[in-house]
Amino acid sequence: MFTAINQTFASLLIYLANFLGGNLGFAIIAFTIIIRGLLVPLTLPSLKSQNKLRDLKPQLDQLKKQFGHDKKLHSQKQLELYQQHGLNPAAGCLPQILQLIVLIVLYQVLINTLNGTNLDSLSLDFYGLKLNHPDTTYILPIIAGLTQFILGVMLMPATSTKAEHQLAAQTHSKKDDKAADTMTDMAGAMQTQMIFVMPIITVLFASRFPSGLALYWVATTVFSIVQQYFVSGLGGLKPYLAKIGLKRS
Questions:
Q1: Residue 248 domain-assigned?
Q2: Can you give the pTM of this predicted structure?
Q3: Domain-embedded: residue 249
Q4: Which residues of 16-42 are buried (b: 16+ CB within 10 A; e: fewer)?
Q5: CA dist., res. 98 & res. 89, Å (int)
C-alpha cells in the first residue's frame, strides 16, 4: 500500500516539475498545495472540532471542579455537554491519522527525489538554493520557524486564561482557587513555551535537511495558516497585531 502511494506521489511530483519548466522548487510548492487541498475535507471537521473544544474549555473546567471527585459522573456530564453542542471529540482522530500517513509518504517521496532516486533532468536550483543540499544562508529555515511560530500563536485562544481565572473565583474555598489558578498558570506557561520551542526545533531541523524539505515545510505551514484563518480567524495572533497597530482589538 505504502509503496503504491509513494510511487503515485513521486510520479505526480515529477509530472508537476516537467509541467512547470523542469523546476523542482515550483513543483514542490504546487505539489504541497494539491496534497493539502485534497486533505481539506478531512482536516476541516477536525479543525472545527478543535475550535469547539477550545470554546468549551471554560465549561469543561467548571465540570471538572464540580464533579472531578466522581469520575463516572464527570464523564457523564462531559458527554452531555458534548451532545448539547453536537460535538464528537473522537471524530477528528481518523482524519489526523490519515493526514499523518500522507505527510510521512510525502516526506519519503521528497527525500527520494532530492537524493536522485526519482530524478531525471530536473533543475534543483531554486533562487540560488540547491534543493538537494541544506540551505547555508538559513533563509528557508528561518522562514519555516517564523511561519511555525505564527501558526502556533494563531492556535491559541484570543483570550488566554481570563475565563479560567474567572471560573476559579467561583470555587468554594480559597484553597480551591489557589490550586485552580496554579494549574491554569502552569498550563499557560507550558503552552507558551511550546510556541517558542517548536519554531526553534523547526529551524534546527530545516537547516540540516535538504532545502527542498525546508521549502515543503514552509509551503505546508503557510497553507495551514491560511486554512486556520478561514476556520477560526486570527485566534491568539489578534492581540499581538492590535498591540503593534495592525489590527483593532
A1: no
A2: 0.73
A3: no
A4: bbeebeebbbbbbbbbbeebbeebeeb
A5: 16
